[in-house]
Design brief:
The chain is mainly β and about 150 residues long. It is built from one helix and ten strands; from the N terminus they run αββββββββββ. The protein has a single domain (about 35-145), classed as Rieske Iron-sulfur Protein, CATH 2.102.10. It has one helix at about 1-15, and strands at about 40, 55-60, 70-75, 75-80, 95-100, 100-105, 115, 120, 135-140, 140-145. It has a six-stranded antiparallel sheet, with no helix packed on it. A four-stranded antiparallel sheet has the order 5-6-7-8, with no helix packed on it. The model is unreliable at about 5-25 (pLDDT under 50).
Length: about 150
Amino acid sequence: MKRLFSLFAMVALLISCNGDDNGNGNNNNPYLTPPLVNINLNLNLPQYNPLNFDGNTVVLPGQGIRGIAVYRQSATQIFAYDLSDPNHVPNGCSRMDLNGIVATCPCTDDENSYALALFGLHENNQDLFPMLQYRVQKSGDVITITN
């Protein structure tokens, strides 16, 4: 009986482990299937220069599902979010508009808004899915975005 319990405990432990150690493995969202993303941004190039300063955002159209917003909160905290509204299936109006650090869905039936500075959480309803987040690593003057 002890062996059976030990085996059950080991299986339960292995199933509950998540290979993603930085919290970005939260894609239990039934609406979004993230595409493969592997992007390098050279901060010495003029189009990515805003990411050298806190509070700035750069949009990468044509990447991810509906584009990717890269937000620099501080020198050590840089985030990348997909601009597809995470609370419905991608469609003609699901690409969110970015105004400062707030992404808003233009679909008239939901008016969802998400704060980049609050880890992509919905501004009014924390029970809804947050924005799809990608992994970000900074090495010198290069930011690498992957999933």
